[in-house]
Amino acid sequence: MPTSSSYSRPRLLALWLILAGIIGWIAAFVLTQERLHLLANPDASASCDFSLLVQCTANLGSWQGSVFGFPNPILGLTGWVAPIVVGFAVLSGARFARWFWLLFWAGMLFAFGFVLWLISQSIFSLGTLCPWCMVTWVVTIPSFYAVTVHLFRAGVIPGSPAGRRRAASLMAWVPLMAIVSYAVIAVIAQVQLDWISQF
Q1: Mean pLDDT of the 181-190 span
Q2: For residue 127, is it left (φ>0), alpha (ψ between -120 and 50) or beta?
Q3: Where are the domains of the chain?
Q4: Contact of 87 with 17, CB cutoff 8 Å
Q5: Residue 121 has what DSSP assignment?
Q6: DSSP state of 50
Q7: Segment 155-171 mean pLDDT
Q8: Which tens digits make up the pLDDT trace of 122-149?
Q9: Does 42 or 7 have the greater pLDDT score?
């Protein structure tokens, strides 16, 4: 772990990881409840079904909703614990080895890639926008950006001092990067699904 005190204990990142982890875990918990409800009542619909476009049932009941042989929200129930634990550990003064940060980043990369794939499946294949799934998208995207930028600025991913300074300045742009990402997704969804006219 780098010795720079300003980046080895990134409090704002830690607070964001805790917040994002809690929000993501709640979304996963609700989706798990909905999936269990649908399994027990096959003819029922999820409480987050608002229209043919905005619903959870189609997503939860599709093969994309159980890619690994079990409902995807179970991944969230387990996976979102990691950012919460890491966030609290950093706030308490813990310093992690380089391998730990890289392993944590690998998990964030998997989550980011999986979310992008689920977004594409939701828009282009299922033709639906799942509310709780979108909550997951909203917290996963900036979390990945923030952790990635932190690893560069803290020197976990090797780079020149100038590169680390650029990464440090880039951290302030993470919210804008996330907003741009949301806008791109919204535009793609609008072109494909015309969601604005259906609200």
Answers
A1: 97
A2: left
A3: 5-198
A4: yes
A5: I
A6: -
A7: 90
A8: 999 999 999 999 999 999 999 999 999 9
A9: 42
The C-alpha R_g of the chain, in whole angstroms, comes to 18
The two structure tokens encoding residue 196: 């604005």
100-129 tens-digit pLDDT: 999 999 999 999 999 999 999 999 999 999
- Can you state the angle between helices 81-91 and 11-40, rounded to 10 degrees? 160
- Give residue for tokens 């918990």: 29
Phi, psi of 129 (to 5 degrees): -125, 105
Which amino acid, residue 69? G
Give one DSSP letter per residue of 133-182, joined into a string: HHHHHHHHHHHHHHHHHHHHHTTSS---HHHHHHHHHHGGGHHHHHHHHH
Q: Quote the CA–CA distance of 58 and 128 in Å, as a whole number.
A: 7
Residue whose tokens read 């990945």: 144
Reported CATH class of domain 5-198: mainly alpha
Of the candidates 107, 108, 137, 132, which has an alpha carbon nearest to the alpha carbon of residue 120? 137
Q: Is the dihedral of CA 183, 16, 110, 101 positive or negative?
A: positive
State the amino acid at position 114 in one-letter form.
F
